[in-house]
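hiii so um. not sure if this is the right channel but i have a protein structure encoded as tokens and i wanna go backwards to a sequence. like what aa goes where. can anyone help
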């Protein structure tokens, strides 16, 4: 915990073990059972996460000889079609992104008609969980994490890969606080395969994205600004009781400057955040 710079128990923020912990199969409720081998390569250990973007399993990659995360896309997203093919193309690009701050994508495959991704397994927690537990981070640690997020995003953009859903939940932190960005392109897949409906997280969407238009590098930078705003202040830049309310705010309103929330924030950091979210 001291190494990570947070006043939390070492049992919560721990060093990465030499082998991933293997959850008890008695609590397993996933679609694939522990010990099951997929396509002759991935041996399932346990279900480690489940949400709107699918089930995630910890597995042994019998080819690479290392633990991996295997993420099965929801059936309604993994249907055949142009959207899925575009996503496959994006995954091929994402595989070329090799950077310490990006969760490495290994492969995309299919088993029993279900599409999955295999990627680097990060033994840790996401930034959203951390912020909910402790509030905002100390300024020095927030700056360290921010730099890593920026470096990872820049590496992806250099390869022509957009994230489209940058938010705290898609920023993983390992046991020593190193950042990995995850889930590149999943929001676009959701939009492509769900008849163009708005997909993603409205609180972190750019004005063009929240109105259903195409994304660009600028869109990712806008989301980055909203993420950094929350990282440094502990508060979301925009909140609302409905999608329509958030849409109006993202298009026409400016959030309170971070310096009105914090007693002190580095003026350079504040300028960067406000520049990212400038309309």
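sure thing!! here u go:
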């Amino acid at each position: 915990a001291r190494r990570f710079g947070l006043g939390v128990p070492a049992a919560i923020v721990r060093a990465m073990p030499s082998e991933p912990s293997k959850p008890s199969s008695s609590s397993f409720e996933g679609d694939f059972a522990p010990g099951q081998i997929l396509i002759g390569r991935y041996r399932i250990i346990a279900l480690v996460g489940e949400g709107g973007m699918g089930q995630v399993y910890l597995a042994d990659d019998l080819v690479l000889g290392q633990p991996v995360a295997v993420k099965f896309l929801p059936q309604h997203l993994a249907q055949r079609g142009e959207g899925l093919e575009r996503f496959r193309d994006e995954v091929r690009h994402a595989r070329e992104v090799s950077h310490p701050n990006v969760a490495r994508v290994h492969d995309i495959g299919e088993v029993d008609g279900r599409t999955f991704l295999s990627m680097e397994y990060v033994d840790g927690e996401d930034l959203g969980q951390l912020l909910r537990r402790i509030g905002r981070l100390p300024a020095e640690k927030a700056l360290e994490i921010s730099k890593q997020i920026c470096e990872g995003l820049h590496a992806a953009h250099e390869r022509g890969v957009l994230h489209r859903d940058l938010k705290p939940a898609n920023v993983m932190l390992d046991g020593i606080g190193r950042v990995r960005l995850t889930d590149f392109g999943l929001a676009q897949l959701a939009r492509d395969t769900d008849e163009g409906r708005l997909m993603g997280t409205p609180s972190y969407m750019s004005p063009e994205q929240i109105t259903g238009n195409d994304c660009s590098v600028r869109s990712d930078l806008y989301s980055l600004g909203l993420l950094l705003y929350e990282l440094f202040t502990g508060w979301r830049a925009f909140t609302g009781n409905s999608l329509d309310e958030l849409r109006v705010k993202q298009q026409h309103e400016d959030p309170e400057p971070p310096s009105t929330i914090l007693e002190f924030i580095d003026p350079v950091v504040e300028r960067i955040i406000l520049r990212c979210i400038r309309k």
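oh and Helices lie at 82-94, 127-134, 139-158, 186-193, 207-210, 217-233, 243-252, 267-276.
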